[in-house]
TrEMBL record:
GO terms for cellular component: nucleus. This is Uncharacterized protein. Residues 161-170 have a biased composition (Basic and acidic residues). It is found in: Nucleus. It comes from Camellia sinensis.
DNA sequence: AAAAGTTACAACCGCGAGCTG
DNA sequence: GCAGCTCGCGGTTGTAACTTT
């Protein structure tokens, strides 16, 4: 047996509110308040002008029929409450979110997730519904990016049923909200903390070995290739002193990797090709190795063979790199602040990457 | 100009919490 | 303790407006 409906749905109006209905509701609440009972409110509004009297003891259904008969507000109490709270009550602001409000929403979302009522409480004049809509339609896209969001959706779809084949609930599956928060946190970390991850060796004890391996590979290419573009790649490793070393950032524009702007200008097409090939591949390898380390609980690497062959191997997975690239920005920052990132997050990372077919 | 796709927002739904008799 | 009720919340849906093809 299902839950009893809050009202007689066949006899209440649904959909957008008309100005007349708004005026009726507002006028009543301005005069009488909500009376502490939203369910009965539309009945009172409807009957007030005609026969409303506390001395008349009618059943709920009788009241409702009277409302409809006497052209009262044909809305259920929940609808009235929603309309009042989200639209009609005084000092409500709509749209035009400021940068400061964006920051507050973002920070609180990371901290507490989709607790919209709590977030709304920090933003005077904003409703939870408004903030929720703003987040879902604009702010999330603004902060996370369309492509990345589509990846989250993809993951969410792939794990929509959090039960395994035995019908057991998969405890390692995070909510969509949690995934977004992880992603958002990483993005903000990378913006706010220039010493994070790649720039701070202390944050990547395992991946540091990987980094050195990639650097070795690039140096190998640098020394052995006849490709003129390769010869201008500066692969100086980061200093072991956090904050003092040269930044090794795979998202860095190609200009920082070149010695001489004239080279860049005259050979931009070639450099773009190189950049498109090498930099994302390196990033993606970091991700794969991170996954490898997590899955196998080992700090070793498979014997390195021909680095070019290795890159070719990664090239086959090139189409995948964008799908997981955001995970790498500050992946190890969570291991460096274990009070923030727990084992569940790591498990989710594993689930995320392993949900893709390498083809 | 029209169809298709996307965005933004209002409103609805169902659930859990809490209150009351 | 319980049943019945309302409230408040978060997720979801419906749709008008807008944009792209």
């Amino acid at each position: 047996m299902g839950r009893a409906p809050c009202c007689d749905k066949s006899n209440v109006k649904r959909g957008p509110w008309s100005p007349e209905e708004d005026a009726k509701l507002k006028a009543y609440i301005d005069k009488h308040g909500t009376g502490g009972n939203w369910i009965a409110l539309p009945q009172k509004i409807g009957c007030n002008a005609y026969i409303f009297s506390d001395s008349i003891n009618l059943t709920d259904m009788c009241w409702r029929k009277l409302i409809i008969h006497y052209t009262g507000l044909k809305r259920c109490g929940k609808s009235c409450r929603l309309r009042w709270l989200n639209y009609l009550r005084p000092n409500i602001k709509h749209g035009g979110f400021s940068e400061e409000e964006d920051n507050i929403i973002c920070s609180l979302y990371i901290s507490i997730g989709s607790r919209w009522s709590i977030i709304a409480a920090q933003l005077p004049g904003r409703t939870d519904n408004d903030i929720k809509n703003y987040w879902n339609t604009r702010l999330k896209k603004k902060l996370l990016g369309r492509r990345k969001q589509s990846n989250i959706n993809r993951l969410s779809t792939s794990s929509q049923d959090p039960k395994d084949t035995n019908g057991q609930e998969d405890k390692s599956v995070l909510s969509n909200s949690a995934l977004e928060r992880i992603h958002l946190y990483m993005q903000l970390q990378s913006l706010q903390n220039p010493l994070s991850f790649y720039n701070n060796p202390a944050l990547w004890p395992k991946l540091r070995t990987l980094q050195e391996k990639i650097i070795q590979s690039l140096q190998f290419l640098n020394e052995n290739t006849t490709n003129p573009w390769m010869q201008h790649i500066d692969v100086t490793p980061p200093s072991s002193q956090p904050g003092q070393g040269q930044k090794v950032d795979f998202y860095e524009p190609p200009t920082v990797a070149l010695n001489g702007s004239n080279v860049l200008e005259s050979r931009l097409d070639g450099m773009e090709q190189f950049n498109a090939k090498i930099q994302p591949i390196s990033t993606f390898q970091a991700e794969l190795d991170a996954l490898h380390l997590l899955n196998n609980e080992t700090t070793g690497f498979p014997p390195q063979e021909d680095p070019i062959a290795e890159f070719d191997c990664f090239k086959e997975m090139d189409g995948l790199k964008d799908s997981v690239i955001w995970w790498s920005n500050d992946f190890n920052s969570k291991s460096a602040s274990s009070n923030t990132w727990d084992a569940t997050s790591v498990l989710q990372y594993q689930n995320y990457v392993s949900s893709y077919n390498l083809q």
